[in-house]
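Troubleshooting log. The previous structure file for this entry was overwritten by mistake, so regenerating from the original sequence record. Sequence copied from the archived sheet and checked twice against the printout by T.R.
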Amino acid sequence: MGKKGKKEKKGRGAEKTAAKMEKKVSKRSRKEEEDLEALIAHFQSLDAKKTQVTETPCSPPSPRLNASLSAHPEKDELILFGGEYFNGQKAVVVPQGGGQLWIFGGEFASPDGEQFYHYKDLWVLHLATKTWEQIRSTGGPSGRSGHRMVAWKRQLILFGGFHESTRDYIYYSDVYTFSLDTLLWSKLSPSGSGPTPRSGCLMAVTPQGSIAVYGGYSKQRVKKDVDKGTQHSDMFLLKPEEGGEGKWTWTRINPSGVKPTARSGFSVAVAPNHQILLFGGVCDEEEEESLEGSFFSDLYVYDASRSRWFAAQLKGPKSEKKKRRRGKVEEHEDATEQENGGTSAPEPLEVIKEVVTEDGTVITIKQMLAPSGLVVRPSPKAEDNAVETSSTGQEPCPRSNAMLAVKHGLLYVYGGMFEAGDRQVTLSDLYCLDLHKMEEWKTLVEMDPKSQEWLEDTDSDEEDSSSDEEGAEGGGEDQEEDSMEDSAEEGADPQHPEVASGEQYEEYLTRTEQYWLKLARNHMGHDAKEKKVFKVAQAMAKTFFDDTVEDTAQAKH
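Regenerated output below.
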């Protein structure tokens, strides 16, 4: 009795603490949100009469992450909604009435990205008539983002999320249901030990009628102005109790198989056979002063019927496999084993892809494809070109917060982001994978370099201080850049790579980048920082390119 009483008191104490924290966060963030309400009210007044959706042909969507990508329940269409570029919403599609797209909550950021407004409204897009309708129902979840919502029978079930202001934040582990018949919210109180508060988790309905919840992210304050993030890797099932309407139970499970490594920002979809797919994500290594992430492009599958995880593997193009002959395979067996160090296990492949953005910045995407990733695993008697026939160059690069959807057995991956140094790259490429054949990724839309931009008002304090020190010694970064530009302007040096007729600057820089980097390094010395060398090389190339184009134009006139 005594132990039970202590546990109950401890549980009530935790609930009180959570309630106090939510009240504290709500009070502090209210003033901040009021500053944004005027801006949002202006948007709403402009959109007040725009409940009807018009459909017009357009170019592919702009780069984004944290959007929702859903398959139309009746048409051969994918529906992309919302997202962010540099706040996202969660959408659920239900098949009733010609198809409906349900949206709850989400986040709106101020133009400077310093203030956030968390919505708690519920909307439905009627796909048959292409009209939006706001559903006004009390008793629903508080304003939040990063939550997850699924359609279960005639209900929408929502779990978790977070609310953040400038100074405080809170993560949730509450569960709400919304009836599609009565259009009313209800808060559930499941029995059993459930997940700790989190956002961005996997949430999907299993063929057995339970709801699976895996992973997610949360953070907590360890001391003043220091937060510690947690990438969860635990898994739970939310099960309806038999004979008890509205009663649910949490159960923690430990599936077998090859589980995903620790990560957050992964994307989720459900395959036609009801298996749950998990793609990509990022594993953040946090220090007090820094945060560095490793991004993924692997695909995992959770089979709820067997409670088992396994890593998906591609087979490679079928047409190429048929061309191989057993005799030729045996003939090259010894050479293959020797090249692989006496074993048939393939070495990891490094794929390097360079993208030149509109502002001239060159982004190098390096991807290490381990044998356990989405590459072809040669059989013990497969020849070397088994690796070459894989679609390595067409696979999505490692990324987090991408959009995932399945339609007619095809898995679609769109957008997301990855980091290159201090720069965040938001993607707009589109890939698909046939889940029945599992042969190769196909590129439907490539990333447009012109859609990439990075605006930096000032460098970091460290760079500023180092620039000041170098300036005191008589050689700041600006002076170096000016001197390099002057040297480039002084002569149309015949040794510089020529600009081809009709060539754009991005193309020219991609072709000649190594030359300009070497030239800048020679001018600045081997002790110069790589970032400065890169900037000076770009300045030299741009100056020479502009001068050449101008001289050519004047010569024509």
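Residues 79 and 289 are 40 Å apart (CA to CA). Archived copy saved in two places this time.
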